[in-house]
Amino acid sequence: MHQPNITNESLAFSIMLVLVAIFISHKEKLTLEKDIIWSTCRAIVQLLIVGYILKYIFHVDHEILTIAMVMFICFNAAWNARKRSKYIEKVFVTAFIAITSSTLLTLLILIITKAIVFTPMQVIPITGMIAGNAMIAVGLCFNNLGQRFSNQQQQIQEMLSLGATPKTASISIIRDSIRASLIPTIDSAKTVGIVSLPGMMSGLIFAGVDPLEAVKYQIMVTFMLLATASLSTILTGYMTYLKFYNNRHQLLINTLNK
């Protein structure tokens, strides 16, 4: 079977795809040319750096370096997820705990069940997929919580005035936010194999692996993404809602009216 081989020349020619996007942006006056160029250059630099780092880690094959890379991925995922929190500040710790806990638990189950082996070549790519999906779910949860608390201030105030605790007044918002945050992951699981052939499956098939073997890996990935997204958003929802109240269990109106 012919193995894929991307030469430097073919990679250079592929830049024409970016030029097409720039041309469309310019022609339609979308003013996205600078953003496209900057994001392209940044992606190239980041990927090259990561490529050299991974090459070194895979060569050394040391447990400490593997764990350090896993934590580095979780840290960056949490750092980016907290940017979606427009109504409350200082949520990085919450995002880090939610993403790291769900990621490590999923990795632990995969390793214990021998679905993967604790080697950097398997653990690091899997961590990237898990933490990346958790990052999106946690970011959506932050955003959904903020919007719902802002839109439902009156109802919450009425419930608090009638003696409800912050948890009782917030429980429907927490559940709705978690549910909304899981929709992209659930929809992705519903359409996998029908609408899209995800990265893991496509990559294995592209590398020459038997499609049925690739399907097994993709099923495993689907399971772990659903589990990680669910756990991370649940942790986020129940760790975050109290930040919308002060020490006297009063709703922080000024925060919600930003």
UniProtKB/TrEMBL annotation:
Q: One Pfam annotation, family name?
A: UPF0014
Higher taxonomy: Bacteria, Pseudomonadati, Pseudomonadota, Gammaproteobacteria, Enterobacterales
Where, per UniProt, does this protein localize?
Membrane
What PANTHER family has UniProt attached to this entry? PROTEIN ALUMINUM SENSITIVE 3, UPF0014 INNER MEMBRANE PROTEIN YBBM-RELATED
Q: Which organism is it from?
A: Providencia stuartii
Q: Which UniProt keywords apply?
A: Membrane, Transmembrane, Transmembrane helix
Q: From what superkingdom does this record's organism come?
A: Bacteria
Mainly localized where? Answer: membrane
Its family?
Answer: Belongs to the UPF0014 family.
> Membrane-spanning residues where?
6-24, 36-58, 64-81, 93-117, 123-145, 189-207, 219-241
Under which name does UniProt file this protein?
Iron export ABC transporter permease subunit FetB
Topology class, membrane:
Multi-pass membrane protein
Gene Ontology cellular-component terms listed? plasma membrane
